[in-house]
Specification:
Helix content: over 70%
Radius of gyration: 18 Å
Order of helices and strands: HHHH
Oligomer: single chain
Strand content: under 5%
Structural class: mainly alpha
Distance between the termini: 66 Å
Number of helices: 4
Number of strands: 0
């Protein structure tokens, strides 16, 4: 019974994570400006986390689970910092959001 639960939970988490990563990739390609593309790319963090948790349900060994948790923590710490650094450097270099240009064009 527990194997059935872990298989269903792991499979559904893998499916949800894959869907979020795929939708993030589509958003990164389709969104119009840099800032919205960064937002779409940051959804990949949640997708990767769901995939890793789904893989934890399938792992049988403790060392594999520990490695998956370390990878997940690394992604959850580094990715928001990198996204923030990219957005801040783009803003400091003068790149304005697309909405800003349309809304305040006459000023």
């Amino acid at each position: 019974m527990m194997d059935l639960f872990s298989s269903l939970a792991g499979g559904s988490l893998l499916f949800a994570g894959s869907f979020l990563c795929l939708s993030s990739a589509v958003g990164t390609l389709r969104f119009p400006d840099f800032y919205t593309r960064i937002h779409a790319a940051s959804v990949t963090d949640l997708g990767a986390t769901l995939i890793l948790v789904g893989l934890i349900f399938y792992s049988n060994e403790g060392i594999v689970t520990a490695k998956l948790i370390m990878i997940m923590l690394f992604i959850l710490i580094t990715s928001p910092v990198a996204s923030h650094a990219l957005a801040k450097s783009a803003r400091h270099s003068g790149l304005k959001p697309l909405i800003y240009d349309k809304k305040f064009k006459n000023r």
